[in-house]
Amino acid sequence: MTSVPRILPRAFYDxxxxxxxxxxxxxxxxxxxxxxxxxxxxxxxEAYDGEDDQACHARRGKTPRVVPMYEEAGHAxxxxxxxxxxxxxxxxxxxxYPAAVLIxxxxxxxxxxxxxxxxxxxxxxxxxxxxxxxxxxxxxDGSLNTCDLCQANSPLRIETGWELPQEWVRRSPRxxxxxxxxxxxxxxxxxxxxYARFTDWMAHTEQQGVS
DNA sequence: TCTTCGATTGTCT
DNA sequence: GACAATCGAAGAA
Length: 211
What we know:
By secondary structure, the chain is an alpha+beta fold. It contains 5 helices and 8 strands; from the N terminus they run H-H-E-E-E-E-E-H-H-E-E-E-H.
């Protein structure tokens, strides 16, 4: 990683949501709290695109819960689901157009002791391999909803990470949205880097001293 | 007010 | 592979 972390600018998010979802892979999600810095590398995302997208929470319009999706790109949209889980999204596109990228999985980089504590009893590989596991490991909850991801002094932000080869990116249908019907249910709007591919590469770069 | 159900996870069989 | 946990948002009544 570069010695001085750079924050992804707002322009990064002010683009079509599918592009943002793809380009977020390999970037570094940071949560600073209790004087500690927790860093992870984003490995899996999903795109949700507008009121027409029947899998999108904004499909019924601008209800109180989804207001952040309509706001300025580059902010966090964090919501509560299944009575116990927080899920983290990055808002994209123009103000007034509800679109966001769900961050589904990441690789732990820094703050490992704290993450292990937050994911007590779970092995390293499963600390951040799901959207609610990730928020649990990073101690992210609703108090961070609408947080600006583009500010260097923001407790929750996304820094530039690595440019991973495009051919590493897998595309598949989004998870847990069977209710949406076609074509939404089958659109390949889930993007991910295979975990093993990333860890092999990490092991190699660490050996080379390139980090 | 009542009812349904979810962008999930962990445990148990 | 099945299923319970757990509760707020949203729609129906």
